[in-house]
Amino acid sequence: MKKKQPYIIIAVCAMILIILAVAGILKVSIKKKTGNEPEYVFLYAENQIADYPTTQGANRFAELVYERTDGRIKILVKPDAELGSEMQVIQQMQYGGIAFARISLSQLAEYIPEMNVLQMPYMYSGPEHMWRVLDGEIGDEFLLKTREHDLVGLSWYDAGARNFYSTSPINCLEDLKGMNIRVQESDMMADMVSALGANPSKIVYSEVYSAIEQGLVDGAENNWPSYEAMRHYIVARYYTIDEHTRVPELQICSKAVWDKLSESDREIIEECARESALYERTLWAEREKSSREVAEKSGITVIELSAEEKSRFREAMASVYTKYCGDQMDILKKIMEY
């Protein structure tokens, strides 16, 4: 029996080697079928947190593109402003440093002034009105305008209505007088606040909480999800619903990157961008509702302006309309009546 042991050991070892060899073959075979390396790996800049509607929309866009190109195009979404502020991202995209991004229209309008007309204060009567404009011929024309500035507009994302929130109540136009209000890095938004009698302060989004907490500003303006996500409701306990602007957001692509893609890949990307936009809008509506509930449960005071008071706010915008839409008043009127 002892003489047979070496043969048994050799036989067992042989079987193990055969099993390992077969496993290796299977592994290689599986890798060949499912492990294709992407032809392109692109970065997507997003300044919101990971579970924010626009970030989830961006992730959906990346998934759709990956699936429909059979893994040839992989898009890596970078949230939390990891790739820089929106202004910095736009600058990098103009030479191809970043391929894709979700950018607020107010930031993009700093580079493309003609787009200011789409975000004029107190212009839209409600969300349905805005989507009629953006999903129609007017919106398509403005997406094409981005190509004149080394960018390619892909689709429109929702960002709800922006309202004021502050450390003291804003019940009427007079309450804003002398207040220091944080605004985006946007001249138009700064002029809007000035026209209402307040003092605009351009502060980076990530620093708004500390600015209010330290008393550097008396408040800010943004939508419900941003107010809740960044926990601004802790330091600014009054939320005034005036819906001064409905500032949509855009998914954009660097033209330097766009020009390298095939026509079929461009069609896939545009299709996926539009689908992700519809997905984001659904998420936005859900998030807006839940964000408001969270803020209200914390004990904030919600102030809704009367129609008469909103009219006074709108009348104060005459100088803003003239400055930013002087040669586009016909388009402004068309949008208001659309």
Topology:
Layout: H1 5-34, E1 40-45, H2 53-68, E2 73-78, H3 86-93, E3 100-104, H4 105-108, H5 127-134, H6 137-145, E4 151-157, E5 162-166, H7 173-176, E6 180-183, H8 187-195, E7 199-202, H9 208-213, E8 219-222, H10 224-229, E9 238-245, E10 249-254, H11 255-258, H12 263-297, E11 301-304, H13 307-315, H14 318-325, H15 329-337
Parallel strand pairs: 1-2, 1-3, 6-7, 9-11
Antiparallel strand pairs: 3-10, 4-10, 5-8, 5-9
Helix pairs in contact: 2-12
Short description:
The protein is built from 15 helices and eleven strands. By secondary structure, it is α/β, with parallel strands linked by helices.
What would you say this structure looks like, in words?
The chain is α/β, with parallel strands linked by helices and 338 residues long. It has two domains: 158 residues, Bacterial extracellular solute-binding protein, family 7 (D-Maltodextrin-Binding Protein, domain 2); 132 residues, 3-Layer(aba) Sandwich (D-Maltodextrin-Binding Protein, domain 2), CATH 3.40.190. The chain is 49% helix and 17% strand. A five-stranded mixed beta sheet has the order 2-1-3-10-4, with helices on both faces. Helix 2 packs antiparallel against helix 12. The longest helix has 35 residues. The chain is globular. The N terminus is likely disordered.
